[in-house]
Amino acid sequence: MTGLLWFFRKWFWIVLAWFKAFANKPLVIPMPVDGRSGADSGAPLLVPVPLSQAIPGLPIDRVLACKAEDIPADERSASKTGFYKFQVWLYSAYSPMQAGLPSIRPDPDRALAKAYTWLHRTQFGPPTLPAEYLGSPDLGGLAVRGPYACYTRRCADGRFEWDLESLRGFAQHEGLVPLGARVLFEVDATQRVLRAVAIDSALGRCTPGDSGWELAKRLALCSATTHLSLVRHFNWVHLASGAHLAIATRNRLPAAHPLMRLLWPYLYATQQSNDTVTRGQMLRGGDFETTFSFNFEGMCQLFDRSYGECNFVMNDPVADARARQVVDQGFDTPTEHNLAALFNVMLDHAREYLALYYPVAAQGKSIEDLQSDTALKAWLDELNHLVPNGVGLRSDALSFEGLARLVASVI
Question: Which domain holds residue 279?
């Protein structure tokens, strides 16, 4: 009977996920219109409040967000709001979770084959396992290639590390080994690679050859995946950065302002998107609680505590790599090289665009044309007020290059 109930429950949620992907269409972005920004009306259009007030049911006070009713009319989507309300209701009415089922198969290929059905594959191809995961995961390879490269930084003693110990101390689901780890790497100068030499975790310190080494590596990777998904991406990109960039832009830049016209396609509908996905992923029974190690209370505490640790410079991969001291250190950094090349395309675009409107500053003669732009300075002031720890450029310390790098980071 358990298997039959799970068959219907599983396929209900598979079809729902398929429908969301099938129905998802490119967003049509209208032109910004005069009179629909705070700069036009003379008063802030959007005022963020603690997330506990914006979305009742989330006991998170340090994260700031807009209430659903405050989303600008030209960005609001009644269909998306209604659908996600229905999905949240389903979490309790017909949860995608069911007790008493067999454990997930340890073989990732067999587990994926069972979970990622033919219906999924009509929309997206199945994920592939990176070469660094074949056999025993190669942490040194993952430290320079792929998304976890952003955690690699130089230690005072000349070695390198992933420091993910900030995940310690949050309530988790029963029976799980606590997350939080610190991985130490040393440079293999002959091969120009990093080698993992020690891992500190709930297991204590493990080194290659120890009986707990393989489990320690899995804990380190689980910690990295959790932090990347919940903290670095959702909390810092969506909530701490993107939301406030959109708020400051709507509040302080008139529709005809060159920065408004440039950034509008990247920021349009941010509040609507954040509101819908935050409800679907963060409310009790949502994706985050049922996918990751933390229970609902632990997940909320993690978001509350980590929000203020956001460092906006992570959106500038060149400056971020320089701050972490990982370039030209005797090992190859393919991901940093790739990110720098991509960012430089955005930076060249930002420089060329801004030079059309601030030609004096672009030529390096003075910053008078920047200083005379009161809307630009008001935008920067609001950004530095809303984004935890600021965005790295202040209205009283303007520079053409600093503005170009900020714009490129947003793009």
Answer: 2-101+234-312
